[in-house]
């Protein structure tokens, strides 16, 4: 059994703040001992090996970054240390506490072929209503055990439900016609062929 890593979170931060520029990362060095270096959320941080222990990586601060449980699971496990920093910079977002919602938007785009709320005719005066509906629909969703926050697919479905409430119509799915029929019926929507074919050219 491998020994527990004894290096403190602050030792890891202190090592890297002298060697890596924080620009392009999801966290400022000032907050790096309490926020995940990839998603920027406050979380219980894990010491993540840059080069995995199984590939000869050491337990030194030079081979460790601080990630939340979810991001740690997704981190690269390769012998070349450059890829950890490439991954951290390529997947970060510029504002704290927005990463998973942004991934929810990407998931929505994968499901519906567009970003949420962009083509349903909303204006700034409806922002408070949208916010209120988002909070309400979050109460009708849950978090997987052990995750700590909603996953992107859940967030995408919340966006879709809020759009449906605002427009009175289910969002048009990106999948083929038979997939649309199946998915919409599964979600409890009553649909007609014209609902599916509508807006095919847009």
From TrEMBL:
<keyword id="KW-0255">Endonuclease</keyword>
<dbReference type="InterPro" id="IPR003615">
    <property type="entry name" value="HNH_nuc"/>
</dbReference>
<feature type="domain" description="HNH nuclease">
    <location>
        <begin position="23"/>
        <end position="73"/>
    </location>
</feature>
<dbReference type="GO" id="GO:0004519">
    <property type="term" value="F:endonuclease activity"/>
</dbReference>
<keyword id="KW-0378">Hydrolase</keyword>
<protein>
    <submittedName>
        <fullName>HNH endonuclease</fullName>
    </submittedName>
</protein>
<dbReference type="Pfam" id="PF01844">
    <property type="entry name" value="HNH"/>
</dbReference>
<keyword id="KW-0540">Nuclease</keyword>
<dbReference type="InterPro" id="IPR002711">
    <property type="entry name" value="HNH"/>
</dbReference>
């Amino acid at each position: 059994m491998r020994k527990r890593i004894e290096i403190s979170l602050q030792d890891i931060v202190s090592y890297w703040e002298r060697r890596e520029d924080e620009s392009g990362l999801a966290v400022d060095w000032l907050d790096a001992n309490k926020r995940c270096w990839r998603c920027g959320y406050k979380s219980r941080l894990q010491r993540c090996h840059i080069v995995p222990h199984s590939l000869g990586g050491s337990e030194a601060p030079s081979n460790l970054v601080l990630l939340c449980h979810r991001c740690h699971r997704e981190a690269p496990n390769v012998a070349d240390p450059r890829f950890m920093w490439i991954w951290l910079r390529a997947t970060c977002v510029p504002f704290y506490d927005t990463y998973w919602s942004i991934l929810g938007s990407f998931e929505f785009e994968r499901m519906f072929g567009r970003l949420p709320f962009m083509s349903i005719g909303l204006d700034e005066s409806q922002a408070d209503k949208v916010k209120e509906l988002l909070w309400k629909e979050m109460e009708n969703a849950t978090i997987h055990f052990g995750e700590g926050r909603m996953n992107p697919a859940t967030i995408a479905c919340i966006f879709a439900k809020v759009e449906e409430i605002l427009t009175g119509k289910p969002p048009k799915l990106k999948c083929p016609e038979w997939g649309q029929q199946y998915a919409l019926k599964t979600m409890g929507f009553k649909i007609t062929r014209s609902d599916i074919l509508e807006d095919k050219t847009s």
